[in-house]
Design brief:
Blueprint (H helix, E strand, L loop, with lengths): L6 H14 L11 H40 L4 H10 L6 H10 L1 H11 L1
């Protein structure tokens, strides 16, 4: 078989890797072996944290809804239970936005639930 030198492909892979690790610290930005490991780990954390982000936002929304509910004399669990009983289809993100930006509308919903 003829010899294959791979220079174009090798350089293209290396360039794309170096572009991805640009801004990393120490040898992780310019040493090939270290950069490969850093890139793999960065990808792993990015994948995991895209899922963690959803959990974090849901927790934040629940805290904001709870604060709004307590201002209107009820707890988070009673508020959500009342929403389900009355079949009001608002998700936590919308409720948190209402509690934070339009407290009058949130108060109207809270009174409707009681």
């Amino acid at each position: 078989m003829p010899r294959v030198k791979r220079s174009k492909i090798h350089m293209k892979k290396r360039r794309s890797l170096m572009k991805r690790v640009k801004g990393f610290g120490a040898g992780r930005k310019n040493l090939l072996k270290v950069a490969k490991v850093a890139d793999i780990r960065a990808g792993m954390h990015a994948y995991r944290d895209r899922r963690v982000k959803k959990r974090t936002f849901r927790r934040l929304w629940q805290i904001q809804i709870n604060a709004g509910a307590r201002l209107n004399g009820t707890s988070f669990s009673k508020f959500i239970g009342g929403l389900k009983k009355k079949q009001i289809g608002l998700n936590r993100k919308m409720l948190a936005t209402l509690a934070k930006e339009k407290p009058a509308v949130f108060k109207h919903i809270a009174e409707h639930i009681k």
